[in-house]
Amino acid sequence: MPPRKAPEKDGAKPKAKKDKGVKKPSAPAADFDAFEEAKTVIIVPANQLELTQKEMDEEITKQLTANNPNAPANIARYNTKEREYKFEPMIDQLVMHFASDGYLLHRESDAAKQQLQLEAMEAEAIEEYERAVAGLPKKAKAGEEGEGGEGGDDADADNNDDDDAPREPVDDSKALRNQFNFSERAAQTVNNPTRERQSATEPPPSQQFTASATQWEMYDAYMEDQLRVAIQRDMIKKQKQREKEAEEAEEAGEPPPKKKEEPKPPPKEKKPEMMAGVPMTRAVKVMERMVNQNSYDDIAQDFKYWEDQSDRFREGEGTLLPLWKFYNERAKRRHVTAIAWNPTYHDLFAVGYGSFDFVKQMSGLICCYSLKNPSHPEYTFTTDSGVMCLDFHPHHPSLLAVGLYDGSVMVYDVRNKVNRPIRQCTVKTGKHTDPVWQVKWQDQDLSERSLNFCSVSSDGRVTTWTMSKSELVHEDLMELKLVTADADDDADALGSLAGGCCFDFNKAQDHLFVVGTEEGHVHKCSKAYNSQYLETYVGHNMAVYSVQWNPFHQKAFLSASADWSVKLWEHNSSRPLMSFDLNNAVGDVAWSPLNSTSFAAVTSDGKVHVYDLDINKHEPICEQKIVRKAKLTKVAFNPEHPVLLVGDDRGCVTCLKLSPNLRKGGAEPERMETLVDTALKGEQA
Q: How far apart are CA 236 and CA 151, in angstroms?
């Protein structure tokens, strides 16, 4: 900042500005006066800032603080107690500019007294040495005074002589020294540390080697050494043979025999890599399952041994125990649209991920989970469109049929490592024009060599797909014609088709199947007669999401609809036998494989409803909320274990175990038949 201009006094001339001692050249020698005072002229630089009088009079205050400007202000440390990172409020502002270890000792300390005593002893030793060199007698100590007459006289004589001689001034500099002794000669200079010769050279190169000495490695090394010795023995034997033949040819006067070309040894077989082979993969998978079993040990114990003891004190009520939750980060923001258990491996199941929100469609995902490893799926496959349904083949457990939102159907082989299906339909091969809502494998007849499955779509077609050598061949089983209540609307509805939502084949009569539609109707159809419906069941007011035949009774089936109801039907009666109102849209329904009269349904409020018609025909024996702020979309019973799976619209699948009251009864079809007959008699009455 340039210097401020001082105010001028009255009658005084303004002083010239000083410019950092820059002088003008002096006057020539002719005008030089020895008695004249030297003059200094200040030259103002051209780039100096010009300030007004007000600016120069302004006071600028600067405050000095003890804060370190280079200290960080955003240090975050991990708080173990709260398990999160916290900002550090206290910042160390201390900066050490210079630090040096001193050699000062307090004069009253024990170490200082010991050092002074050593200095005194050293001074006495030097004085005695100087007296001995000069030939003077030893100085008498205080304890030796007065011993012996002659010695005492001599000492007195010496003292008298000393008194007569002029005395030297006493040096009291040590007495006046500061007791803390701050000025030490050793602290005034810095001695560089000595450098040893061996530290100036680079260390020799070294390498670490580790190996394990196991029995099989010793055996392999021994066999390799034996093979090497045998090869060397053969080479020496052949060399001697060639030398002998050369000597015999030389004695006979013949030219030496040509060296025969020895056949090259066969290439050594490469051993499979230990970390990339199939055995290693299998061992790692087993180890991963063991680690997960230890991590989820309490859940595994509940899965095997848990029994709700409170069921013994209550009749007609049960509970569901949540076990594992299966979730994949890649399934985020996707709905669980399908769940299918593997018919052979009862711990393996497939989950399809898509979206029921048709405005927000995204790519699909298929994950195959195992109850033995709930942390990560065993197999994963991705699709271009959202997955809407899937089904395992009953006799070939590796084949998985999949239906997509864009109308495609495809078949995956889960044993393949590649992420592509083995069969897939196209537009040329009869692809559906609307979403495929359900696929079902058909039992293979002895006359049929190819595998086939059926699909139903919103385009009104029920189609059979046959796996040929290179593609999927389609054949339409049924076109779902629209059924209207008024006869006048038949002409308008002649060319339109009803949208199919679900279907199921009868377990005893495989040609018989029922189809649920978007209009709320359920149609009974036959593969042998596809010109019209065998029966139409009218009972729902909204779309039918699921229909399922009873696995123990060949005449009864269930239907679940978005009109909050689940209905029980007998296929020879056009009216429902029973109706159950669940107070929310029903996403799916499934019969229990352990009880002929029990079934479970899931609703959009996150609840699972379990009914046992043999115990209570009006109320569920278990109504339990499983998820919060989510809708349950699918349910599936395990064919062997007393567990069921429920999926929600947030991509999570929850495994639930049934309490003893929920799996009472048995698989006798007579119980269900009695129930159906009673309901039919009541309806006729």
A: 105
